[in-house]
Amino acid sequence: MHFQAKSNKRAKYQYDVEAGKFEGLPRSIEKSVRSSPGFTAGIRRGLAVLGEG
Questions:
Q1: Who's near 24: CB < 8 A, 6+ residues apart?
Q2: What distance, in Å, lies between the first and last C-alpha atoms of the chain?
Q3: CA distance 33 to 16
Q4: What backbone phi and psi angles, to 5 degrees, belong to 27?
Q5: Is 34 helix (H, G, I), strand (E, B) or coil?
Q6: What confidence score (pLDDT) does residue 14 get?
Q7: DSSP tag of 30
Q8: Average of pLDDT values for 7-22?
Q9: Mapping DSSP to helix (H, G, I), strand (E, B) and coil, where does residue 4 land?
Q10: Distance of CA 19 to the CA centre of its chain
Q11: pLDDT category of residue 52 using cuts at 50, 70 and 90
Q12: Per DSSP, what are the bridge partners of residue 2?
């Protein structure tokens, strides 16, 4: 699973299941998306589909 920010469509941040976060994601973006219930729910759904949740 990966995340692409609208501000930099070339950068992709891979999700580290063990750490529970996106590797290399800038703190400012992480704070912004973590406060979104929809984003957190999307991560949970994605992990469930991948058999990780």
A1: 13
A2: 13
A3: 16
A4: -55, -40
A5: helix
A6: 94
A7: H
A8: 90
A9: strand
A10: 12
A11: confident
A12: 14
Residue type, 15: Y
Tell the residue number behind the tokens 């929809």, with chain if given: 38
Q: Which residues pair with 14 in a beta bridge?
A: 2
Per-residue burial over 10-31, b if 16 or more Cβ lie within 10 Å, else e, is: eeebebeeeeeebeebeeebee
- Nearest in space to 2 (alpha carbons), one of 37, 35, 33: 33
pTM: 0.75
Q: What is the mean pLDDT of residues 1-26?
A: 90
Q: What is the pLDDT of residue 53?
A: 67
Q: Which residue has the tokens 């994601």?
A: 25
d(CA 24, CA 16) in angstroms, rounded, equals 10
DSSP string, 9-24: EEEEEEEETTTTEETT
Are residues 40 and 32 in contact, defined by beta-carbon separation less than 8 angstroms?
no
